[in-house]
Amino acid sequence: MRHTLILALFIFSLLLISGCDKARIIDENKEIPASGWYYKNKLGFDFEIKDTNRIYTVYVNVRAENDYPFSNLFVMLHQRNPGNKDTSFRRELTLINENGKWLGKGLGDLFDFQLPVMERVRFKEKGLYHFDLEQNMRLDTLPHIMAAGMRVEDVALTR
Question: 37-58: string of b/e by CB count within 10 Å (b at 16+)?
């Protein structure tokens, strides 16, 4: 009986915590193979926009090891809207400042980043959006990136 009560409280706590992020449309990360992030290994993400009057922020999530050899990360984002129109754009993500300090949240030799790539954007169509995220550095296979992902949030609900 006691174990059942503890399990029920644990499940309730998880549901309560996951329900608190009302601004989140998507927050998903995908693991990168230990061999590195090959530039042709695009990570795909789908999410639905229900309200075209809302304002959103789109983030790229990155988990890097302390041995990551660069202070930045260039990524290409390829977006397909519900009308099947494709657009692409390149962004530079700064991971380490000019003093050599990591800008993400660190634990041991891992650092997590959530960096905006589109701010105060209105999606013009309701429906399913698809993003492909790819690394766009000079190396074909980028070492020491453990995971990457995307977050889209409703700006009005972040307050």
Answer: bebebebebebebeeeeeebbb
Residue 104 · residue 57 · CB < 8 Å: no
pLDDT digits 0-9 by tens, 71-130: 999 999 999 999 999 999 999 999 999 999 999 999 889 999 999 999 999 999 999 999
SS3 content of the chain, % helix, strand, coil (to 5): 15, 50, 35
Decide: 73 and 137 in contact? Cβ < 8 Å: yes
Pick the CATH number of 24-157 from 3.30.1490, 1.10.3110, 3.90.550, 2.60.120: 2.60.120
pTM for the whole thing? 0.83
